[in-house]
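W.,

You were right to be curious about this one. When I first looked at the sequence I had no strong expectations either way, so I just let the prediction run and decided to look at it fresh. Below is the sequence, 297 residues in total, followed by the output.
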Amino acid sequence: MITFKCMYCRVCRLWNQLIRDKYLWQRVDLTARPIAPKTLWKVIRGYLSDSLLSLSLKGFLYSVKETKCLTHALLKELISRCPKLVSIQIISENLSAIDSSKFPPNLKRLFIQNCEVTQHWLKKADKSNLFETLQELSFANSKRFSSDDVQYICKLQNLKLLNLSNCYRICDDNVNQLTNALTNLETLVLSGCTITDLALHFVSHRLKFIQTLDVSDCTSLTNQGLAILGVPYCPKYLTVTGCQFLVTDLAILVKRNSEIVRVEFGVKDELKTLNRNNFQEILDSYQNQLTAQVDAV
């Protein structure tokens, strides 16, 4: 989309003026392919202004090129030109050399996905209270994200969404810290984390506003952990793909908790959904199978 806009600028003077309209540059997505710093400088200086609200970038992590798309100078330019910027998404970038305190202030959404960060990466931002306005934070697939940074996340009292998908260092103790501090969370993604039924206990007993919970590929969870959900709080949307839960136990969970709207699970690599319309059908089918087995005996 951005490529087309830049191409249209060359058609004529009128089109150039139209394309540069601030309204068309409120949300800029540059994740179609990795973007070099030189190109990003041209975009920032040529098209971005105080109308920019959201910016998405893709770097060169795991690429043959050792280029880094983000620098401190670029961040400084963004702060200067785009004071209304509230959302940043960074994909596949090495942020080890980036100081977290150099990010724009007043961010409400920060998604760092498939990136490389150092231990205590959030420490400098925490000292300056830079991220205190954050409402959504993601470190999804950032393998080197350390559980030591959880202490800084716990201070972000305005968080409503937290995504730590595939951060394998996250364990029950970290979930204990997070749920104890961030009681206003509405969405929590812990897929691929090293958690057990104890983590479900913390979520169910502390997050009274929880709407969405994703624990996909958390293979240490058991059917006994399902009984914990809903006592007293239960998410409306639950994803357990890759877990070893029995379908009947999931159906019983839906029947027992009227708050649940949808449960997504996997059967032989096939994604399936349980909701308030079909859970009784599964329970009836299971009951019929039991009856047939008893009659056969």
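Here's what jumped out at me. Residues 65 and 134 are 32 Å apart (CA to CA). And, maybe more interesting for your project: DSSP finds eleven helices and eleven strands in the chain.

Coffee later to discuss?

I.
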